[in-house]
Specification:
single chain, 311 residues, alpha/beta, eight-stranded mixed sheet, two-stranded antiparallel ribbon, 12 strands, 18% strand, globular
């Protein structure tokens, strides 16, 4: 089994938390570091939520703070789905002691990428502000990253606007810079993540394990579950992590993709040539389009049920 060295860049809300828990449990992945970005909630909350997950998992992954806001627009959070604390109102304690890291996320990411000599993979499940900032500050970073797997975008409709998915819409200028950086890029957008759902009975089955992880998973996702009108809660960010480890669970196609940064109704849209007669000059992104849903539910459930309380 090949081991993937990964860096997680997250705006740690409800499904980011599930993604981090899965990443930690996947034997195919070795987490090198975690960086926090503002998105679902403000930076201080996403940062502290990552630290809380460290305590819950019994890990000590280094956690770095990144961007407090997008490059050129105001921060628009996701309180409606993630709650004011980002974890759906579930309260988790911080570690008793943790280092106050002053190094910024983009500097730490670059340092790690150089150390791993091109083997490091980046999994980004929030707005791409940290990633784009790193690429601008360190132009040679692209030769040190094996690939970037993002949760974001859509070849079809959006969820924050009719045209745009939230993570891209939150900072389209940063997203555009990442998509055009020339790094191998995998886009796990709404085309596939809307098929990666857990029904209420699936959430309850994980909660029935009787652990804090199970209760967090079930309880934190109740708000998004109630908005889906019986179609299940979508585990958007978990898809990117599972793709990084087990791509045979998915199907997709190479495509040309650009990010709209100037449109009125279309700002933040990922424009693809998947379904158009006219094509972009290059196919720069692997767009994930389909998933083995039954396998996804089974394997994510197994990962979350593998946790036992430490106290």
């Amino acid at each position: 089994m090949d081991k993937h060295f990964v860096w997680l860049d997250c705006d740690t809300g409800t499904d980011d938390a599930a993604a981090i828990l899965c990443a930690n449990g996947l034997p195919e992945l070795e987490i090198v570091g975690i960086s926090a970005v503002a998105g679902n909630v403000e930076l201080e909350k996403t940062y502290r939520n990552a630290l809380r997950l460290n305590r819950l998992m019994g890990t000590d992954y280094p956690v770095y703070q990144g961007a407090e806001k997008p490059w050129r627009k105001e921060l628009e959070t996701g309180y409606r789905y993630h709650g004011e604390n980002g974890l759906g109102g579930v309260e988790l304690p911080l570690p008793e002691r943790y280092p106050e890291v002053t190094e910024k996320a983009w500097d730490a990411l670059y340092r790690a990428a150089v150390r791993y000599e091109g083997a490091l993979e980046l999994i980004a499940t929030g707005p791409l502000t940290n990633v784009a900032t790193a690429l601008v500050k360190y132009p040679d970073l692209k030769k040190y990253l094996a690939r970037i797997v993002i949760m974001g975008g859509s070849a079809g409709a959006g969820n924050r606007t009719p045209a745009a998915e939230y993570n891209i819409y939150a900072d389209p200028d940063a997203a555009s810079a990442v998509f055009q950086a020339g790094i191998p890029l995998v886009m796990c957008g709404l085309d596939v993540t809307m098929k990666a759902y857990f029904m209420e009975e699936d959430l309850l089955a994980v909660k029935a394990g009787g652990t804090t992880v199970g209760r967090l998973f079930h309880d934190s996702l109740q708000a998004p579950l109630q908005t889906q009108h019986g179609t299940g809660v979508k585990l958007h960010d978990v898809v990117a992590v599972m793709y990084a480890a087990r791509p045979d669970m998915f199907d997709g196609k190479m495509a040309g993709v650009r990010v709209e940064t100037r449109g009125g109704c279309t700002n933040g849209k990922t424009v693809t040539d998947l379904y158009s007669d006219k094509k972009f000059p290059d196919k720069n992104v692997f767009v994930v389009l389909d998933i083995d849903h039954a396998r996804f539910v089974r394997e994510v459930s197994e990962l979350l049920l593998s946790y036992r309380d430490l106290e």
